[in-house]
Specification:
By secondary structure, the protein is mainly β. It has 1 helix and 21 strands.
């Protein structure tokens, strides 16, 4: 099997031709009550032949968390089944997550399904919708919550586990690594933390960003966000979205590699995935690239939209497969 990183060359133009978008895109559309304006993928779990995709969705400033399932052989098709209990997690009546809950990062750890999620006390995208922000501006109500799955649903902790947004969790060597973003100088930077129990986290790299923005003129010079980390042939790969001017309308997806989950090196051929053609559902922005390998074939689920956040979220979920 070709490693994920082995599909990419040193120039971005070639890498854009490495993908085949599903003819069924978008494979999951907005439209249900809890996600009637937009839906986006955040993480995936596989159990035998069943693939479960955890998603965020919402209407207006209120976001919730749900999930959809499919068989391994049909993930590129439009036959995903919603969980009848959707939304699985809604904003609480009071507290740090009373505004919105979103970006669900599901992971199996120590015999349980853990769910880490972004939480706000106010509107989920109020900061991004400002458009022009100053270098010292930052949201003051973004935290990451934690819940565990029980027979009758997810049971959430009463307090957040760490400050930040857009979590993604991966278990390595009996430790849980949590990647997330925080606002610095108007755009996102990617941070990390580690935990032995899934609840108490210690920041990595002395709380410095693990992945920073590019230099002036580069495609990701303003923001890097929606990190997804996975093992790949003896090293680790981070998929992330980036942009050179807008915080929440990323126009490219890049990759970075690491051997220790702390020090990350960006691929010289970034961005490796860009928005679709004019008229397609993903013609403006692509983000949140969730990886999945099926029978040796790599693919990503991603959020695509043709409209900027400032005009209201309208993302839907697409699938793209790496060509052999």
């Amino acid at each position: 099997m070709v490693p994920f990183i082995g599909h990419f060359k040193a120039d971005a133009e070639s890498n854009r031709d490495a993908w085949l978008r599903s003819p069924y895109n978008p494979v999951i559309r907005y439209g249900d009550t809890w996600c009637r304006e937009f839906i986006a993928p955040s993480s995936v779990l596989v159990d035998g032949d069943t693939v479960t995709l955890y998603c965020e969705g919402g209407a207006g400033d209120r976001e919730c968390i749900g999930r959809y399932s499919s068989s391994l052989g049909q993930v590129s098709e439009a036959g995903w089944s919603p969980d009848p209990r959707n939304p699985l997690l809604e904003p609480a009546a009071v507290g740090f997550d009373q505004g919105s809950v979103f970006d669900p990062a599901a992971v199996r750890f120590r015999g349980q399904t853990h769910l880490y999620y972004s939480a706000t006390a106010g509107g989920a995208h109020a900061f991004a919708e400002l458009g022009e922000v100053g270098p010292d501006d930052a949201p003051d109500d973004e935290t990451i919550g934690h819940a565990t799955e029980a027979a009758d649903g997810f049971v959430r902790d009463p307090h957040p586990v760490i400050n930040g947004r857009c979590p993604y969790a991966v278990e390595v060597g009996g430790q849980l690594y949590l990647y997330y973003v925080k606002v610095v100088a108007g755009g996102y930077r990617i941070y990390g933390a580690r935990s032995a129990d899934g609840v108490t986290f210690t920041p990595l790299a002395n709380e410095r960003p693990l992945l920073d923005v590019g230099t002036s003129g580069q495609w990701d010079s303003f923001t890097v966000t929606t990190p997804k980390v996975f093992a790949d042939s003896g090293q680790f790969v981070m998929l992330y979205a980036g942009d050179d001017g807008l915080i929440d309308d990323p126009r490219g997806i890049g990759i970075a590699v690491s051997t220790d989950l702390v020090d990350w090196r960006k691929h010289p051929g970034n961005p490796v995935f860009v928005p679709g053609r004019r008229g397609q559902f993903d013609s403006l922005s692509v983000a949140s690239p969730v990886p999945l390998c099926v029978d040796g074939s790599w693919q990503i689920f991603y959020a695509g939209t043709a409209r900027p956040v400032a005009e209201g979220l309208q993302s839907q979920i697409g699938v793209a497969r790496l060509l052999a």
